[in-house]
Amino acid sequence: MFKVYSRYGIGIAVVLIVYFLLLKLMGLHQYPVLSAVNGLIYGAGMYLGIKHYNSRKNKLKYEKGFEVGLFCGGIATVIFGAFMALYMYQIDTEFSANILESWNLEYAMGTLTLLISILLMGFATTIVLTLTFMQLLKKSWNTQDGNRNTL
């Protein structure tokens, strides 16, 4: 199971990094609204990871699928967070100041605030998408025998 979520977690992180660098090349990395695509990237990677794990097993147990989804997203979030920390602290130190300035807050905030926001958004996205996908992929408890007893 470690191979599944590490492979897909690293894959999600690589796609997130490539997407960010493409935005940087086009000069669009300053617009936080474009990070909504990150949710699509997380969703696609986690869904593929859970489906891959499900294809290897005869019956998907809810807790195992949930574990795969959480670890895929968690690994991706940690790797992407480390990349963004490296980027904001070493490569483009003005990036975080420009983003935080656009938030129009009355007090000074540092780069760490933006980094914590990135990590929290990644983990929140992971939890919500894992819960959603497991509702779609779990086996129903409704049986043919139970369906005949309904109105």
UniProtKB/TrEMBL annotation:
Originating organism: Aequorivita aurantiaca
Pfam families: DUF4199 (PF13858)
Regions crossing the membrane: 7-25, 31-50, 70-89, 109-134
UniProt KW keywords: Membrane, Transmembrane, Transmembrane helix
UniProt superkingdom: Bacteria
Coiled-coil segments: none
Name of the protein in its database record: DUF4199 domain-containing protein
InterPro entries, A to Z: DUF4199
